[in-house]
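One chain is below:
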Amino acid sequence: MRHPDLPEFVFETNKNRVAIYPNRVVKTFKTTRRSARHARREATSLQRLAGLPGVPTLIEVSTDKHTLVMTRIPGVPLADGGNVSDQSLLSLRALVEQMRLRGVARHSLPKRDVLLDEDGRIGLVDFERSTQRMFAADPIWRVACVVARFNILRLVNGYAPHLLTAEEQVWLRRQVGIRAALQHPLRFKRWLLRLLRG
């Protein structure tokens, strides 16, 4: 049996260090130009999402505001493979919607941040890249909601396209096209010129 004061895993990047203990996670943001903003964003998101099943509970924020201690969500990342049931994907969609209703939208939804436990329950971790609704007609919030919708539909489509409505499939294809055009403007310009020339 592992000692409770020793982490089971430690992940370290150029941005942060994450120590995973049996019942908690300690995330320390390395001092960079944006580290305080990322730590504050994650702490604010977790505070807004307090009590929501599948989201870590914030336990403590260090006095320097660079270290967060939160509960550990059970499960393994979707990135590690395995089968994902339709019910788990529907639960993930519901979780993302509950987050939106509480004023939190994620900028991305990588498989490494989606956890699936043995019973098929879904959890989400890593909220440093999220947007919080500041006021009712916040234009940045509206964009963040479109991005969050794109990310959840793309993830669900990758596992179970039949769970998307026809309208959602059309919307997703359109967004993928827009995104590709924005990421490759020269290709888009050439395509547009060919289209205009007939």
